Amino acid sequence: VQTQGWMRGCMVNNKPATIAVILLLLFICGSIWLIFQYVSAEKQRDLEAWQSRLSIMAESQQYAVEAWFDQQLENIDALANNPLLQLYVTQRDQSVARDDETGRGQLHHLKNLINATADHADVFTPIKKINSNVENKVNDGIAIVNSTGVLLATRYFPIDDIEVAKSFQSAIDSKSFFISTIYDSADRQPRLIIVVPVRSVQSLSLDDIKAAVVAVINPEDNLYKLLLKEWVTIRSEETLLVSYDDRRVNYLSPLKNGYQLFYGQPRSGDISAKNIADSSVLEYIGENVIVQDYRNIGLLATARKIRNTTMTLVQKIDVSEALAESNSHQQFI
Fold first, then answer.
1. Which residue among 79, 132, 177, 247 is least packed, with the fewest CB closer than 10 Å?
2. How confident is residue 274, by pLDDT bands cut at 50, 70 and 90?
């Protein structure tokens, strides 16, 4: 009886302490829960901030790339709509002989006009910069092409490039200008083609196409420089141009970590392909996705279509860098 009374007395005496311990444990658990909620909310805030920042960067890059294409198209279109060129292709189509002095003068002026257009565009290789022993490796320039082949061309134009014929035919079939995707001309030398139809002089019909102006451009010293953004201090930030079909994602601009130009990855039919950012992001143009890229590294990415082309711009940053500050806070806590 004395023992039972003693135990009841202990329980009565220790009841405040027990309540205090319980309350302390509840306080600790609640504090831990609040800390994790804070860390989670901080990560979400950082993520949303980077999503906004990434969208702004993507739209800025999209504008710069589209403006570059518009400028090239404007230069080629001005040549295609020049009355002298229209007269020349009309006469060639009608087999009008131009062996007289006037005809030779017009031809000479037309050649100068083509060369002047190339110089003004400032995206083609200047003749004076190339030695004769490497001329065949340049493969860029402007040409006047009709159904029989190349009529006139600048010095380094790749006359035998099969992509030139394909692009020319695409413009003729569509009766409008055509911009190709960036392709491998030889030994991973990137080139892209812009084609603008040339109609008969004073023609009122859009179908009256006699030839086309074809420009083959090396993007390495112009378009690719727009993508580099050397002024950006974000280590893992990257802007890419890609094209894709049902099977593959093809990288059309330089990659990091030693990956070669025109590197490609499967888009479907491969388990690993489901996590490729540059595949998944293409399904959600204009949105932000968190997946893996060609390096199998988690990243935040968004994509924008490039107007008048089949190319897509992908803007990305590694998730580890985007969430570096919140991750540091989490480890500290």
1. 132
2. very low
Whether the CB-CB separation of 301 and 291 falls below 8 Å is answered with: yes
| Side chain identity at residue 79, one-letter code | L
Q: Which residues contact residue 42 at a Cβ distance below 8 angstroms, ignoring those fewer than 6 apart?
A: 326, 329
Q: Cα(270)–Cα(233) distance, rounded to whole angstroms?
A: 35
Tokens of 78: 């001005």
Which positions ≥6 away from 289 have C-beta within 8 Å? 277, 280, 281, 300, 301, 302
Question: Per-residue pLDDT tens for 280-324?
Answer: 666 767 777 776 666 777 778 888 999 999 999 988 887 776 555
Distances 248 to 193, 243, 253, 267, 279 between C-alpha atoms, Å: 22, 8, 15, 5, 8
End-to-end CA distance of the chain: 52
Distance CA 252, CA 259 (A): 12
Of residues 51 and 173, the one with the higher pLDDT is 173
CB 217 within 8 A of CB 192: yes
Cβ atoms 250, 244 nearer than 8 A: yes
pLDDT of 102 reads: 65
**Pairwise CA distance, residues 223 & 225, whole Å:** 5
Nearest Cα to Cα of residue 37 among 332, 240, 293, 330: 330
